[in-house]
Structures are given as structure tokens and as C-alpha cells.
Amino acid sequence: MSAAELNGRLSKVVIIGLGLIGGSFARGLKQAALCDQVVGCARSISTLEKGLALGVIDAAETDLTKAVQGADLVFLSMPIGATENILSVIAPHLEEHTIVTDAGSVKGCVVEATQRVFGETPLNFIPGHPIAGSEKSGVAAGTADLFLHHKVILTPVENHSPHALSIVRALWEALGAEVVLMGHLAHDKVLAATSHLPHLLAYSLVDTLAKDDENLDIFRYAAGGFRDFTRIAASDPTMWHDIFLANRTATLEMLDGFTEGLSQLREAVETGNSQEMLGVFTRAQAARGHFSTISNQRAYLEPMSESTNQQKTAFILKPGKQVHGKLRVPGDKSISHRSIILGSIAEGETHVEGFLEGEDALATLQAFRDLGVVIEGPHQGRVKIYGVGLNGLTAPPGDLYLGNSGTSMRLLAGLLSAQAFPVTLTGDESLSKRPMGRVANPLREMGVKIDTAEDGSPPLKIKGAQNLSGISYKMPMASAQVKSCLLLAGLYADSTTVIEPAVTRDHTERMLHGFGVSIAQQGDMVTLKGGQTLKACSIDIPADISSAAFFMVAASIAPGSEILLEHVGVNPTRTGIIDILRLMGADISLQNTRDVGGEPVADVLVRSANLKGIDIPERLVPLAIDEFPVLFVAAACADGTTRLTGAEELRVKESDRIQVMADGLVALGIDANATPDGIVIQGKGNKEPQVFTGGSIESHGDHRIAMAFSVASLRSGDEICIENCANVATSFPSFVLQAQKVGIQISVKDI
Ligand code: S3P
User: Fold this and answer.
1) Index of the ligand 1 atom closest to the CA of residue 652
2) 524 is catalytic
3) Domain 3-182 is of which CATH architecture?
């Protein structure tokens, strides 16, 4: 029901208790003209007079029984401890159609009060709790927009009247609130943690300090931390007294957990246990950041509403002409994951520079914090990991949520299969559909008890406390993630050999070597003996060639362009993009090639060129596996046909990249045909500047699809709108800024 549909349904609304919440509700109703008359009812005549004088209410009444006569809706907003008394006074005077709702901060006691008064909760009674307020109280402090963009939790009982619920919901929505439904017990637990405990602590801290004469200066000089932490101690004492009595059990449970944590921290301070302190502080800092991420409605780490959030971000691209300039794209995603994983199980402190602060790598970082590793940062790409050794990880407090990151899930599956504790790995909607049998099956051969969903997809449930035996495994597909998973598990087995059908990225092998692990590589075979100690080291992560790829194609297809991409990782297992573009006629040169901590790095200069269509050699497929979306854009701009075969792996990436790209290319006027293992693209060539028509593209939440079609705008005749782009933050959070910097006309629209 919308605000407009409420029109004419509510004649008389009675507000019992005209404080901050009741007053604000009344103001909101009147401002939006949601009923004919708002009647205020309170014990204090001066409150009612103030309400009338301020125009908050139309009429005032001190007698409850008179007030509720003929009411269509009664809103209870007095202190929660008065609920039962007030209900028993008004009960005989309510009409059958009267809807009753409340704003109490605890819901279990309200439901119980209705049961005692009425025998059972009336079907027209919809308990509610607006998560809004301020430390100020009283009718004068109220505002009509107090609830705007705030959540209101409604906890309707079983068999409630759907009509009553829809009216109460519509009222809150008309005041700008977001309504959430929840059971009353769940509500009380959540609120004990998020609201009641913090209020208790604030009151207690201020009282403790105020009692101590020597501490009085604190109030004189109060600023910063003290002021932030204790703001809520200025809240209404009666209200909070009632809340703690009403939500005693859940609050005590939270308080006990907090007391335990506090005494551990006390001990750490007393004994100067830096690691323990840093552990608590870095975990808390990360959790606080995560909290802001959720409130800012970004995609990461909010599994429940993530798909809605993704739909909110679209890229709008105006046709561009050229790209120019110098860029250093963010750190390599694959190497960033591995730096955290190996740093965590090493002995000593590992220092990382150039870490990718994208959501995928951060998911791995957070997982290791949850596994008990103290990690400082990231601060501008710098991370410090206090390694716990091969056997020092501890059981996480809950499931490990890995967002969109397939690499995190597959690599962690290997490492965590060898730990003494069980663990469950989960992911977002896209990751939850991706194949995990490819790691679960060989791990089972090593003796791991690991379950997937029936179709082999996540969650991965790993039993733990098992002895792993080494295997020799011939991978059925070319996958660095599978290889790395088995090598990580192999650190805990006697001897593990992985044989790959084609060369895949070898960052795990190189980094293991950097941590002092000896590993034998021979042709397509890599062998690792378990039980070796990893020694902490320093890691300098080069810029990600997979992110640089977008600008390589951008500069290649847009006539008159020139771009220098600095400090790019050019590990030969990753340079398929350069090889393929060169086969198509691209003008790419590598300058200042050097070795950075065991990984080759170069500055890559790209100038525009007339590209031609080619048959992409299959041996290059694993070496450019993440770059095909943008390579398809290059193919559309090339003269002649480009054919890709042997790339069925693209169908099981963050999206089915063959189909999604084919659909997008066709939507932009390109002749593109998906095949089971590749695609055939008829390039439009270099004669016309405009290759793509404008149009709307669905990225399916796949970061690389979104970025690839952004590049297409350089040769588009009209605007391109790309939907569902929030996940670009998984691998390249600064993409929009960097693209703008070199001349791509991109803007972000939140829908
Ligand atoms: C990765 C390996 C590749 C790649 C992914 C990162 C890695 O996946 O697509 O983005 O870091 O090992 P596969 O191993 O599944 O090919």
C-alpha cells in the first residue's frame, strides 16, 4: 500500500506518549496529511500544550479512555514499562477495526503484555520499533523527518491481520522509513547487541568517571574519544531503565561476552601483549569498516541484499575518441591473495607493498583475520602480516564469507583442508553457482572430508582434523586455482605432484620459493614436499596485467591514442593478452623490464593500431584467461573474423563470459556468435570510427564484463549504459577514476 492509497483510510490517529518519537511521528503524519486528525495523549498537561502550540497535534487528551474512542490507529510511544498498564486501560475502549502499534525498543515484553491483557496478541496489534532517535528527548525535539532513511522493524505475530500490517507499513514508508520484518525474539537479540549494550557501557563509563574527583578534568577537556563514546549517555534515563528491565536476558548475554573480551584485553595491556592488542584492534577496525560498507550500501560483504545493491550501480559512457597518459593500475589480484595466504602461515612478519585493496583480495584478508592472524592494513597498499606458522591458524567464529572471489574459495579450500578445525566457506550469488568439484574431488583423493552442494557448488564444508596423503594429480582442466589449492594442501602432506594440461599462472610456485619452500618444477609437472617451514619475507606486488588489459585494448582501438602502463606484472604465464593483441597487429612495447621479488615487471607502452581478426591459438587461452571480455571488444574493432576455441572455462567464471559477451556485443550491433567453447566475432574494422551502436548492456555483476564494455565506448556512435557494475570494486576499485583520467567518458549512476 502506498502513501496515496492510505488516503481516506485513517480518520483519527491517537499518539499515546508525546515525546521525541511520538512527537516526530505526529509531525510526520500531519506534514504528509496521512490522516484527518492527530490526537495527542499524555500525562503531562504542559507536554500536550506544547504539542498543540507547536502544531504537532490537532487535539489533546489526558484521559486514555476518551482519547482512543473512535480511533482508527493508536500509536504507543510512552516508556515501554507502562505498556501493560496502558493496554489494560484502553483495551475495553478499542473498536474492532482499531489498529494498535507501538515504538518500544524491546518487543518480547510488549508481545507478552498484550497476551496478559487480551489473552492473546490481538490480530490488529502490530509491534514496531523505529531505529531512529537522538539523545534529545521531549516533544519539542521531534522532527517530521526523524525517520527518513531509517529502518523500522515490525515484528507481527503469527496470524496477524495483513490489513493492519499493510497500514502500519505504509505509514512508516510514507514517513520515509525502510520497513523490515523480523520475529520479536530475533529483534531483541539484535538490539541488545547493537543498541542496548552500547548504552549500558556509555552510562557506566560516564558514571564511573564522574564519581571520581580526580577525573573531573576529563569533563572539562572532553573531546574526541570521550565525547564520541559517551554521547548516548545523555539519553532518557527512564526509557533506558525500562529497556534493560524488559530485555534483561539478551542484554546480559551480550554483556557477559563483552566482559570476557574486556578482561582478555586488560590482560594484554597489563602484560604488554602487543600481538593480542593489535589483533583485537585490527579486527575491530576492519569490522567497523565493514559496518560502514554495509551502511553505505556497497556490494561487498552483505550477502543478503547484495543483488539489489549491484543493480544500483550503472556505468554511463559517452562516446569517446582517444586515450592518453600514464597509469599505474592497482596491484595484481592473484598475487595479493597469495601474499596474505602465505604470509599468514609463515613464521615472522611479512611486509607487503602494492596490495590490491579490492573486495576479492580483502575477502581473503578478512578470512585470515577470522582465522586468528593479526594483519595490519591495508594502508595505501601496505600490509603487515604477523605469520602464525604452518599450524597456528585457529577456528573462525563462523562461516567464512568470501564474497565474489573464486580464488579465495579454491585456494582456502586447499589450505583449510589440512587444519585441525572444521570450516565452511560461502560466497555471494555468483560464487555460489561456481564449480567447486574441481577442488573437492582431488582433495578427497588426499583424504579430506569435504562436502559441496549436490551440483558441486558452494558452500564448501570441510571437516578438519584429518591426515592428508600426497597424491599425483593430473588436472582435467588448465586451472591455476586448482593447482594452487593442491599445493597449499600439499604443504601438509608427504609429497604432492600436480600435472597441468597447459601452462597456467605460476604465482603460487614463485611465491612459495620466495618464502623459502623448495618446489620442483619440471615441464608440466610441479612437486612439493610437505612440512617445510615458510619464512616471512617482503613482497612488492606489481600492477595487475588483467586490469592493465582494459587500457591496452583502449589505446589499441582508439585511433591517435598512446598510453604508458607502469610497473605491470609481465610474468610469462600472464602475458597472453599482449601476445594475442600483437598477433592482431597491436603496437605494444615493453620497457624497463626488471625482476621485482621473483616476478618480472615492465612498463608497457601501447599505441593505437589497425587490428586484424585472427584465430586465437589455443595454447594462449590459459595465459589470457581473464582478458577475453576485453579482447572480444578488440576483435569487434578488427578487420575480419576472430575465432576463439578451447575456452570453455570462460563459461564458469564470475558469469558465463562467452554468452554474456556475445549478448552484449550483439546488443551493440556486432555480429557475434557464441560456440560451446568460444566465440566467432565479425570485426567491423578500421574504416569507420564508429563500430558499436549505443545501447544497454547487462554485465550480470561480472566486473570484467562491465569494464570491457566501458572500453567499447571509445568506438561507439552513441551512449552505452552498463547495468550492475558494483562488482568492479572486486578487482579494480579505482577503474572509473583511472578511465576518466585517460579520456574515457564514464560516469557512475546509482539507480
Ligand atoms: C586465478 C586463476 C584463474 C583466473 C582467476 C585467478 C588465480 O582461474 O581466472 O581470475 O589467481 O589463480 P582458474 O584457475 O580457474 O583458471
Assistant:
1) 15
2) no
3) 3-Layer(aba) Sandwich (3.40)
